[in-house]
Amino acid sequence: MNYQELLVEARKTIGSYCKACNICNGVACSNKIPGPGAKGVGDTAIRNYEKWSSIRVNMDTICQNDKVDTSTELFGHKFRMPVFAGPVGAVNLHYGETYEDSSYNQILLKACADNGIAAFTGDGTNEQVMKSATKAIKEVNGIGVPTVKPWSKEVIQEKMLMVKESGAFAVAMDIDAAGLPFLKNCEPPAGSKSIMELKDIIHNSTIPFIVKGIITVKGAIKAKEAGAAAIVVSNHGGRVLDQCPSTAEVLPEIVDVMKGTGIKILVDGGIRTGVDVFKALAMGADGILIARPFVTALYGGSEEGVKIYIEKIASELEDAMAMCGAHSIKEITSDMVRYAR
Predict the structure, then answer these.
(1) Which residues form the FMN hydroxy acid dehydrogenase domain (predicted)?
(2) Which CATH number fits domain 3-57+69-325: 3.30.70.20, 3.20.20.70, 3.30.1120.10, 3.40.640.10?
(3) Predicted pLDDT of residue 341
(4) Annotated binding residue at 269?
(5) Sites in the chain below the pLDDT cut of 70
(6) Residue 172: beta bridge partners?
(7) Residues 37-58: pLDDT tens digits?
(8) Among 89, 150, 126, CA closest to 291
């Protein structure tokens, strides 16, 4: 099976909302929720994709003809490349009933770990979602990142016990999930956290804590004050607030303000190819999350589908690095990309 065949198979199993498009750019699904669409008019997801596409890469082949090494480290763990599968929840609701969160996460985690990267897992109102996700992470020797939603203090404590039991090498909180309806209606109240509340949550974590959902310099500084080990520059794929800036637009300024802090900077939102990954790394990111295309890959070919997509991204990243004169991740520099004028 190749990538195009994978997409054909995905269209048979993925349900009526996602179209398993040749290019996952947010246009066909627009604002379809349930489904993979974005909030409001669907503008933010489309903007994410378009802004990465507008950045050009600077070819330079007057250099040593050395082998390209795409490997990276994150929190003491070595990975094939700085790309991670992003967290997705309620897959049966948004992508069709072929899989539900438990079976989806189990397949995704194993396929990613077997192919040299790690997957982030989602969270949900059903406590079985986190239970099954952390169990699946334990089965791959902790090579996974459970993502806990910003619940009430008591619920977070319960979830963090499951995280600890999983042996995960890091944990994340998608703080921007505060905009999701089911969190807004929670009792006791859940959602946004003050710096002190987030600091308390991070302090009680025994592993590196990643704050996902940072889209401003101000937000990055607050996450730093709270003690985050890493942040994910993310607007939740446009699903929590319409008319947000794209992640590509804000990444450089966030990278600039975080220089010298030691905080790892990851980014997601509209990144679809290995060339996009290269662009994000050149702009200062330490790692990249990709979510929606991994869903399509899994629905189209289960573990084999995930492997095919990982191979596609890895091959494209390696080619971009070679053609731009970078033979390791550390050799990727800001002058290797060009911004549209």
Answers:
(1) 37-341
(2) 3.20.20.70
(3) 65
(4) yes
(5) 341
(6) 147, 210
(7) 999 999 999 999 999 999 999 9
(8) 89
* DSSP per-residue codes, 1-17: --HHHHHHHHHHHS-SS
Determine how many CB atoms are found less than 10 A away from the CB of residue 108: 28
- In the numeric block, the tokens 């450089």 are attached to 252
Structure tokens that stand for 254 in this block: 């966030």
For residue 118, which phi and psi values (nearest 5 degrees)? -130, 160
164 is in an annotated binding site: no
Which residues fall within 8 angstroms of residue 112, CB to CB, at 6 or more apart?
84, 85, 118, 119, 143, 144, 306, 310
| 107 belongs to an annotated ligand binding site | no
Give the residue numbers marked as catalytic.
Answer: 236
Give start and end residues of each alpha helix (H) in the chain.
3-13, 43-54, 91-95, 101-114, 127-139, 153-166, 181-184, 195-203, 217-226, 247-258, 274-282, 292-323
pLDDT of residue 125: 87
Asked whether the CA dihedral 263, 264, 268, 273 is positive or negative, the reply is positive
Pick the closest to residue 326 from 276, 278, 260 (CA basis): 278
Q: What is the pTM of this model?
A: 0.96
pLDDT of residue 184: 80
212 is in an annotated binding site: yes
Question: How far apart are alpha carbons 242 and 220 in whole angstroms?
Answer: 20
- Is 213 annotated as belonging to a binding site? no
Measure the CA–CA gap between 144 and 159, rounded to whole angstroms: 15
